[in-house]
Amino acid sequence: MYSRHDQAWLSDAGWAAALEGAPPAHAPALEQWRRHDWPLIVTRRTPDAPAGAVCLGLAPPPEAGRKLRIALQVDAQSVARVEHALTLRAAASAAPSRWAAPLAALLADAGSITLRAYGSLALQAVTSLTYLTDSSDLDLLFTPASLHELDAGMQLLQGHAHHLPLDGEIVFPGGAAVAWKEWRDAAAAGADARVLVKDAGSVRLATRASLRELLA
């Protein structure tokens, strides 16, 4: 089972197939990723993806403000291994110096709550290429195991958002993901407030109450 934001490494045969069908503009980035054995990122499954295919993405560093996004569909047998997104602790060494102290404070306060990084910080940590700019957000995944952990994690993120440009998602059981800021903003409207949910194959609306029930 693949989850959005997972890291996926291709086999030699997988890379050969990806390069064979790549547009010329995408080939240099794909070849660079193949040469360094860097992972691709699991994305939401598209409606046109055939059975047995895995949808992946590759995002080279921005050039002159332009962001290239490469979408791939590979056979599941072409995936050599899959790992969850990097933990924030593992990615923190790639953060800019201005984030060092507030990041250390966030990790210290997190305790047993595991935060994972995706987006620019994670890509910079994995590749050592330059992704982060002065306007970059810090994209985090938070996967609570209980209602208590959900509430504690939200309190943690809200408290540290004053010192870091935090963004990202809460991931509920089954892979249902909600932007944590949307979850926060919808709280005032009550349990029946609906939020946008992204999962492995769809985008939909769901009530806060129905998502909290997944943790009950």
Automatic annotation (TrEMBL):
Short name of any one Pfam family annotated for the protein: MdcG_N
Keyword list, A-Z: Nucleotidyltransferase, Transferase
Domain Phosphoribosyl-dephospho-CoA transferase MdcG N-terminal: residue ranges: 4-83
Keyword Metal-binding applies: no
Phosphoribosyl-dephospho-CoA transferase MdcG C-terminal domain: residues covered: 88-208
Keyword Transferase on entry: yes
Xref: InterPro entries: Holo-ACP_synthase, MdcG_C, MdcG_N
Superkingdom, taxonomy of origin: Bacteria
Protein known as: Malonate decarboxylase holo-[acyl-carrier-protein] synthase
